[in-house]
Hints:
This protein is α+β, with helices and mostly antiparallel strands. The protein has six domains: 2-31; 111-183, no CATH class; 200-240 and 557-650, Chitinase A, domain 3 (Roll); 245-257 and 462-550, Chitinase A, domain 3 (Roll); 260-344, Roll (Chitinase A, domain 3), CATH 3.10.50; 358-443, Roll (Chitinase A, domain 3). The strands form seven sheets. The chain has a four-stranded antiparallel β-sheet with strand order 18-3-22-21. It has a four-stranded antiparallel β-sheet with strand order 14-5-16-15. Helix 17 packs across helix 18 (484-494). The two termini are 45 Å apart.
Amino acid sequence: MAVITNIRNNKILLFFVIGTAMVLFVLSELFNPGAGGAVSRNIGEVAGQEITAKEFEQKVQDRIAQYKENTGQLTLPAELSDQIRDQVWTEIEEEHVLIKPAQALGLGVSAAELNNLIFGQNPHQIIKQNFTDPKTGQFNPQQVRQVMNTLLEDDEKSHQWINLEQSIKKDRAVSKYYGLLQKGLYVTKAQKNQEQLYQNTKAKIAYTLKRYTDVLDTDVSYTEAELKDYYQNNKQKQAFKQTQEERSISYVSFPIQATAEDSAENFKNMATLKEKFLTTTADTAFVQSYANKTKQIKYATKKTIAPELDSVVFSMQNGQVRGPIYDPLSGAYNLVKLLEVKFGPDSVKASHILIPIQNADTATAQLKADSLIAVAKSGTPFAILAMQHSQDQGTKDKGGDLGWFQEGQMLKSLNDACFNGKKGDVVSVISNYGLHIVNITEQTQATEKRLIAQVDRYIQPSKYTQEEAYNKASAFSINTENDAAAFDTKANEMGMRQADRIKKTDKQISGLGEHKELLKWIYTSEKDAVSEPTEFENQIIVAKLSDIRAEGTLDFETMKEFVQTEVIKAKKAEKIKAMQNGSNLSAIANAWQSSVDTAQSISFSSFSIPGIGNEFAVIGGVFSMQKNQAVKTIPGEFGVYAVEVLDLVSEETPARFSATQSSYQRRLSTEALKALKESAGVEDMRLDF
């Protein structure tokens, strides 16, 4: 009360302070918009050009609106919206790193050239795809002009044609740009000869191998200084380069699983629901409202019903409700109501002829159906009539054959006609697709069938169970948020997991799935930071940012484990060489306690030794040797090799000049775009939005 009294006594001062704060806030936004924090309004940067969130979002919404207009869809699934966003971003990248540079070189498209690409004898691929008759394969330029005039005369649709022209112009400019680059690619005679040498010269070798794994790690030693020396001498190699930032997390999962108490509560709720199910007369609506998965009323036979339910269903009386019955396969409790008992075929084979109903004129369609039924009953094969008159493109070529099907698998009108009729019947029924003439060709022997309404409810974790899992995760997060070592210790006890090499542009986290908020946390946190509890579908996780691999040359600590492996291999190679006793393969193999093997038809471009794997250094060493030269010792990827070249054979084959040049040109577009992006600099900050 004393506080409230003080507020009342000083309310004029209070209003003054609040008013002043509001004015200062408005002024700060007016003169320095966005200064309320270091929040960037840019979604990325390409080739020094800032891409604003507003600009990007406008392009996305325009593309979504265009897609909706073209497809007639009112809403888009999230996955498709994400695909459109990625597509727009890719186009923005290409606009700044490819199309604008092409235009700067004067690689435009003139009005005459554009006209030829649209109406000429060899039109652009976009035009061909949209204006070629699929039946005749003929391109019709008059149809193109007609569509163009129609769109341009409509103010609301003119943008469609303008966008089409822009797409053609951009694609043509890019083609010219790549054409210039391709003309600059030339394979010299020296390159051709070298390529022929690599491809055509085959070596037969004898070798013995002492694997690094044959030497214990404890048999070699190294110092920290040696590790750092190796790093300094090799950090310029590709293995030490990071082309795109990657981050890794360690995490602990707290599963949200239903308990025995949850199962008991679910059983209790189903028992209550059973009373309502027994008295309702709107069984279809009841099933639709309360069932989790099985949302249809259907006929069941002993072959088609779950084993847990068959003995129950086939001992019930009409109108009776049984359950709750637990199904271990689905993990659900079931209520079953028997609505009808009948005898009929288990499966039916039938054919049909589909007759469309034009302008709701059912009478005309029925007259045609009656005529065809009369022709069929007079002896004309039904299959011939179906091939001539059916409009069902999926079955007409098969004589209208629908194959075998069980009750409930077809449209209701077809289903009822087939299962209530008898073999040989030819009848007509109506569906949403039109009028069907149905011919029942085969039926299985009649069996007992029961019409059941089924309500299944999965056992869900209760609110208390979910809160308990969250509380455990929250306590773990709080107790380890400032202590990375404590996180590792406790997480290892609980079964710590890893998700490695996560890129900023990734859609999913390995082992966890899609979670944009966690991805954002990963790329806005510092190393060893511990996350708050993050909920997935059936679990809550707490993560630690365990590693950051920044773009560029990786530092010593990041690469230390890799460096240790390489230094140990080098030390083992020295030790293996020291074991060598003698100069011929047999003596060396005896000293190494290994065997002598041979490998044939090895080429310089093969990179590998059969049965072992890629050994670049060894293959290179082989082709620096001469036939019958003294044995050469070469450290490889898997161990140390002692090699002797038994034979070198040069095979005569046609020149591969054009093939080599073509392979370079095929790679050009992908490699050029990649190089242009790297050169221009692309910063993608979409995750922040």
